[in-house]
Specification:
The chain is an alpha/beta fold. It is built from 14 helices and 16 strands.
């Protein structure tokens, strides 16, 4: 029924809009973690502010996928007495599960909000969004949480739920909205092509992207302001010789810079890591262009993914396309490359007429562009994982070849793909700082000495 949570959110938004009055003061709250990408699309489509409503399912000890209840912020706890009786859950077992889930709830609050308090809900219409309703325990707990915090009206919204789902929630909400109630419902994931787990980094990125202006007003009664991140967010079709390469262009309002991404071997414009970095840049007001360097047929030939000249030619075609777009006519351009894509980015930056203002390499293979490194003029940041020794040595050697302003940033604990918790976020913030510094209107800083930089910027 739904391609993924983003698709579900866009389709749910139309149903939510019909259930609201035009003059209502609305706040969208997503239920973590899977409900946040859905809620982001609802908030974005309807131009509503977004925050998170923290709740945790209490799973039956011997069947954790079965909810016997849920907990929420402020000490809220909702139990399903029928499940408790049928599963013969003892008081000590319930206490142990709740203690564990309460600790995770506190961790999520710190991870998702940092030092910010929850968005104020008092007197507002609150739309609670999840990626689907099964038992309804989490949704009921979320309703209890926002009721306790003074919400004037509560709306529960989900893309999919079983027939009769509102009976599970009783009077917990004032309005119930669902895009699809299939007769053969067996589980939420059944109706998604992609129902992969939502990670903490994606939650943080969704919230940051939706709430780029997050000032608080009136101490405890405000909401995060609406984001104006992407008035330009559209597909691209880049002509490169006889082929056309699909891409996605996102340009925040008033952006003065756009970063073009060159993905690594075996990847594409859908790279989850590059998209995470792109969202971080968008949140900082920097535009991004992600595109496929190779067609599917070309990518099936392994030799093509290491053909740096071919990849560089494709990247140059993308730059030509970008500079013809009205959103980027006066924008400075940066390049972000990963793995073999980093070699292509450096190869292009070495061209005298490339007009590239900054380059960032993440886990890159600059050695594949070694013959051109001395010609790179754009300030270059090389980001490498501390547990990626071979690539780290290659980047150290490459930095000695560079004659431009450059830095080497080592992310402790990261392996080549930056899969370890927090490492990709660290890399994204390093890239964001570099592009913010070097794509601004300020003159570039003086070149650094050739000595080895600190382990972490």
């Amino acid at each position: 029924m739904f391609q993924d949570r983003h698709d579900a959110g866009r389709r749910l938004a139309a149903v939510v809009q019909d259930a609201l009055q035009p003059d209502e003061a609305v706040l969208v709250l997503g239920l973590p973690r899977g409900g946040i990408p859905v809620a982001e699309q609802v908030a974005r489509t309807l131009r509503m502010p977004l925050d998170v409503c923290l709740v945790r399912k209490l799973g039956v000890p011997r069947r954790p996928e079965l909810a016997m209840g849920a907990i929420g912020e402020g000490g809220v706890r909702v139990l399903n007495d029928d499940v408790m009786r049928a599963s013969a859950v003892q008081a000590a077992e319930l206490s142990a599960v709740e203690t564990r889930e309460r600790a995770e709830l506190d961790r999520q609050a710190r991870a998702y909000r940092a030092s910010l308090p929850p968005a104020g809900v008092e007197g507002r219409t609150v739309v609670l969004v999840d990626d689907g309703i099964a038992t309804g325990a989490s949704a009921r707990a979320a309703c209890e949480v926002v009721r306790a915090r003074g919400a004037a009206k509560v709306v529960i919204a989900a893309p999919v739920a079983p027939p009769g789902w509102t009976d599970k929630l009783g009077e917990a909400a004032d309005v119930f909205v669902c895009a699809y109630t299939p007769w053969n419902f067996a589980g939420v994931g059944q109706f998604y092509t992609d129902f992969s787990q939502t990670g903490d980094e994606e939650v943080v990125a969704c919230l940051a992207r939706a709430n780029r202006t997050s000032d608080r007003e009136d101490a405890g009664h405000s909401v995060r302001r609406m984001s104006t991140v992407a008035p330009c967010d559209r597909e691209a079709a880049i002509a490169a010789g006889a082929v056309r390469l699909p891409g996605e262009l996102t340009v925040p309002r008033d952006a003065r810079a756009v970063v073009v991404f060159a993905h690594g071997s075996g990847s594409s414009r859908h790279s989850t890591r590059n998209r995470f970095v792109a969202r971080t840049l968008n949140q900082a007001g920097i535009g991004t262009l992600l595109f496929d360097l190779l067609t599917p047929r070309e990518a099936s030939d392994r030799s093509n993914v290491f053909d740096v000249e071919l990849l560089a030619d494709r990247l140059i075609a993308a730059l030509h396309w970008l500079r013809a777009q009205p959103e980027a006519l006066e924008a400075k351009v940066g390049l972000f490359g990963a793995s073999t894509g980093a070699a292509a980015a450096l190869r292009v930056a070495a061209e005298p007429d490339a007009d590239v203002a900054a380059v960032v390499s993440r886990g890159g293979r600059p050695d594949l562009a070694q013959s051109r490194l001395a010609l790179v003029a754009a300030p270059t940041l090389l980001i490498v994982g501390g547990h990626d020794p071979v690539v780290l040595d290659l980047n150290r050697q490459a930095r000695r070849e560079l004659r431009c302003s450059s830095e080497l940033a080592v992310v402790p604990g990261a392996t080549h793909l930056f899969e370890e918790p927090g490492t990709l976020s660290a890399a994204a913030h390093l890239a964001c700082e570099w592009f913010t510094d070097h794509l601004s209107r300020r003159p570039p800083p003086a070149p650094r000495s050739r000595g080895e930089p600190p382990a972490v910027r």
